[in-house]
Amino acid sequence: MHQRVCLANVPVLVFHSVRRHDLAELGDLSLEESVFDKQLAALARGGYRSITCAQLCDHLERGARLPERPVLLTFDDGYLDNFTIAGPVLRRHGFSATVFVASDYVDDSSSVRATSDTSDRPLESGYATAGELRAMESSGAFEIQAHSASHARVPIAPEVIEFHRPEAPCRWLVAERAAANRPRVHTGEHDAEIAWGTPVWRSGWMGEARAFVPDPEVEKRLTAHVAANGGAKFFARESWKAELELVVASVPAGGRFESEAEQRARLALDLARSRTTLEQILGHAVPFMAWPGGGSSALAIDVARREAGFRATFGTNRTPAGVVPGTSAIPRTYFNQRYRGRFSTTARVWKLRGVADYESGRFAGYARLFAANRLMQIGGAGPG
Q1: Please, which residues have CB within 8 angstroms of residue 355's CB and are 6 or more apart in sequence?
Q2: Going by DSSP bridges, is the β-strand pair 30-32/17-19 parallel, antiparallel, or unpaired?
Q3: Sign, Cα dihedral of 79, 85, 88, 89
Q4: Residues paired with residue 14 on neighbouring β-strands, in sequence order
Q5: What is the DSSP string of 80-110?
Q6: 367 neighbors 353 (Cβ within 8 angstroms)
Q7: Do residues 292 and 147 lie in contact, with contact meaning Cβ atoms separated by under 8 Å?
Q8: Which of 74, 97, 249, 320 is least enclosed, having the fewest CB within 10 Å?
Q9: What is the pLDDT of residue 1?
């Protein structure tokens, strides 16, 4: 059953991507346009009205009035489909949303691509440009806030869990790239920037813990071994993984964890860059941010507010240990939006409306959630 997490009976809902065609590209992060359309229709029937981050914070801090049945709709990352697909659906139902944008992913271009309002097959893949972020705000369907600059994961333990190889997706590589301040590697892009055999360390989200700084000798020996044994062809051997694990074991234990001062500096640099970049693009202050992966800590939140200057931060489904929920750490509710079963559309519409009602303190929400979970079970999958 859904556990209530939102503050002041105001549902804060998390989305990422809304698409017509390229759903598989982002896996669980993508929602079909037709389902999103029906979900917003259900919210509209329930009398919900969109609010902004500032309205929610004003209410939490000083009791400012909100519309009856307020809801804060949020999107994470800044995908192009937020502009080309989700925007027209939001406007059609009279809603608006906040997009938390990872600024390093924004192409500094003024180009604005066609949306579903004007094109039968609008582009969906990739990220919104600077011009499109401005267009999103001018449309009235969105406000733009920060989602860090790098959206990085960092190594958190001296444990190699994977190796960069031809058939492995680049998303595995986020972990060790961040600690070395190297460019973020996007899925499917820039393969040539990283040598075959590069290790992937056990990682966590950038705001959660102190980063482990690996001994560079590990990567040096691994990539040299792969290069000396055929490069990409090396991974055709049945023994490739065992060989690389032996290379890792041959390096004396090394590396270190960053100090608290280094952790603060790492976070302050990334978060300040995100604010500066977005404020330069938009021409106005960007006072709110959401943590990548929902992961943060008391230290990270302190850095975000005191050093990077954010008024409030948003998480996902939880607040970190030692932090009281409030404007320093506003929980948002996220649930599986990629349920696939015989009644997938109906179940997910009921689920979203049930979550909104339940977070609003309305008893009908419990009944809707129970019905949605039951429908998912009957349809061939567990509750989302």
Answers
A1: 2, 11, 13, 333, 335, 365, 369
A2: parallel
A3: negative
A4: 74
A5: HHIIIIIHHHHHHTT--EEEEE-GGG-----
A6: no
A7: yes
A8: 249
A9: 59
Q: Count Cβ neighbours within 10 Å for each residue of 328-361 and write b for 16 or more, e otherwise.
A: bbbbbbbbebbbebebbebbbbbbbbbbbbbbbe
pLDDT at residue number 197: 95
Read off the DSSP letter of residue 75: E
User: Both tokens of residue 291?
Assistant: 């943590």
Task: State pLDDT tens for residues 119-148.
Answer: 999 999 999 999 999 999 999 999 999 999
Give 163-204 pLDDT, tens digit per residue. Answer: 999 876 454 444 334 333 333 333 333 444 678 999 999 999
Calculate ∠ Cα 336-189-198, nearest 5°: 95
Q: Is 317 helix (H, G, I), strand (E, B) or coil?
A: coil
Q: What are phi and psi of 197, to 5 degrees?
A: 95, -10
The two counts, helices (H) then strands (E), for the chain are 12, 13
The SS3 of residue 326 is: strand
Kind and range of the H or E element at 199?
strand 199-205
Burial (0-12, 13-18, 19+ Cβ within 10 Å), 235: buried
pTM: 0.90
* % of the chain exceeding 70 in pLDDT: 91
